[in-house]
Amino acid sequence: MIEISAVNKSFHGWQAVSELTLNVAAGELAVLVGSSGSGKSTTLKMLNRLLEPDSGEIRIAGRDIREQPPERLRRHIGYAIQSVGLFPHWNVEENIAAVPRLLGWPRQRIRDRVDELLALLQLPADFRRRYPQQLSGGQQQRVGVARALAADPDVLLMDEPFGALDPVTRASLQQELARIHRLSGKTIVLVTHDIDEALLLGQRIAVMDQGRLLQQGSPRDILLHPANDFVRDFFQPDEAGVRLLGLQRVAERMRPGERAAGDPVRADATLRQALSAFIVQGATALPVVDAAGAEIGALRFEDLLGAPA
């Protein structure tokens, strides 16, 4: 879907991106991480031609992005940023409908799409008439994501979209993004400085430093097989064990049909969350429940180290 080949970008003699080659498959959620100034955001902006590369090639869906005017390209690429960028004098419906209006969609189709996106982002239908200043930060960010998805783009670019939010709202929106990705199958490229966010959301992680791509791979590969000392240190080796637990779900290790006492953990919780529950409760086994709250099995502390026998 996205093919970046030997791309370079410099500013006044400073090399922001150097010989970057990276592929993102259709339907994949890829995350760019790295230190400040590593070239993450510059790379993202080159994908929708907010910045032009000095050399190299970028192709989306097999087509060189330079083959069409930037404005036309951007109408088919969603873009969500940390500062949200909602138009303050437009209400929620008008903000979400911005690109569909530019594309000349019929009025009823636009209204139906706004309804669909409000439901998808779990925003009440009556929010369509509210203005940005009447919304919380988390609600504004949801509207920003809805606007980015409004024209049903093939690709969604997200630059630190949750960086300015409080931890509770941030965690909620991370779960929303994961759900939207599962439902829509969109190709998403996310820039973040949050390691846990990258591991939670990313199917592929690309680690950058000083404009260069150091390593790309699955979260598990990155944690278990860092390419060099920078990658190892960036992902904080002292935290590697608990972060690996965050990559698996309770359902993968539970014992179906077994019973245990205590406050339950959900089958879709991560093993890292289960570890916290074990410690807080001082338990060696915990009941496991499904999304409806029905008990379906148990998880023993020893199961965190491997699948039950």
Model description:
This protein is an alpha/beta fold and 309 residues long. It has 2 domains: 2-242, 3-Layer(aba) Sandwich (Rossmann fold), CATH 3.40.50.300; 249-304, Roll (CBS-domain), CATH 3.10.580.10. It has 12 helices and 14 strands. It has helices at residues 40-47, 70-74, 92-96, 98-102, 107-120, 137-149, 167-184, 195-201, 219-224, 229-234, 240-245, 271-281; strands spanning 2-11, 14-24, 29-34, 55-60, 63-64, 77-81, 155-159, 187-191, 204-209, 212-217, 255-256, 265-266, 285-289, 295-300. The strands form 3 sheets. The protein has a 6-stranded mixed beta sheet, sandwiched between helices. It is globular, with a radius of gyration of 21 Å.
